[in-house]
Amino acid sequence: MAPLRFAANLDWLFTERPALPERLEAAARAGFRAAEVPGPYGWCPTLLRGAADRAGLDLVLINTPPGDEDKGEKGLGAVPGCQAAFREGLALAVKYAKTLGCPRIHLMAGRLPAGTEQAAMALEMEATFIENLRYAADILAQEDMTGLLEPMNSRITDPRYFLTTPHQAAAILEKVGRPNLRLQLDIFHCQIMDGNLTQNLEMYFPLIGHIQVGQVPGRHEPDSPGEVNFPYLFQLLESLGYEGYVGCEYTPQGDKQHMHLLPEACWDRRAGPPAAGGVPCPTQSRGRQLLWGQVWVQGSAPPGRGSKTASLQLWARAVTWPSLPWSGWEHSIWALGPC
Fold it and tell me: Where is the Xylose isomerase-like TIM barrel domain (predicted)?
């Protein structure tokens, strides 16, 4: 099974740093190897690419421009009469994505026009969206890029957003019929609108091009208290063979440096200690936080303390090295589940 790969959403994480290049650096220091930059447009793309390269981060997702936010716009893809503005925004997004080396663009659907109702506008907005998506797919295909459709919940986040469920998005993708358009499934939105996460992930897995996570109801870290069993979902995604990124799109609680991920080498084997095929983590894993993981740890006493060894197997919601009973020993760790 391929290891899951996490990306920091820099509209939500490390926001105590006002400058986007500083957030890229902070994400890398926290252990991320990839980042989502939904709104890069206030920055020079060459500057951002340089900052990402210096930090060792892949930039894996941007959004199309939202439109005029002062007028309440949140994307233009499905908004009738805004086709020209959508195409202009798409051209800008492609320009940025090329410079950033970013292969995915979230094609934002947008909100119902002011003073209208969903029932009255549904058919016209869907037709507009399909027209714009076909145009976008052809443009993106020339650049070997993928366009993504993200349903957003209308119960809490945005009552006027047009695209609200994976079922609606899947139906539109089928009508558009372009292989480089895929579903961006945010677990937070999906749980609020529909629940039934296992069946939805399995049903729509062939369409999924990107996943995002956030606990329900607070939209905090996956290991914070809430409705969603993320250890189970992460294992499910691995078992399904998911090879894309998992975007961390939530407001962190407490310490802003919360997402200290172990090196991804830890995810490569699940069988246990070396005799069973486990892969030890590199030394730099010490002091990092284990999130959501079932781990097998072996400690060997340092010189002068005898030849005693010890091992521990646990399901770790969050555990740091100093809390383990063999502080100062040499450690090896094998991930049996997501870390």
Answer: 24-252
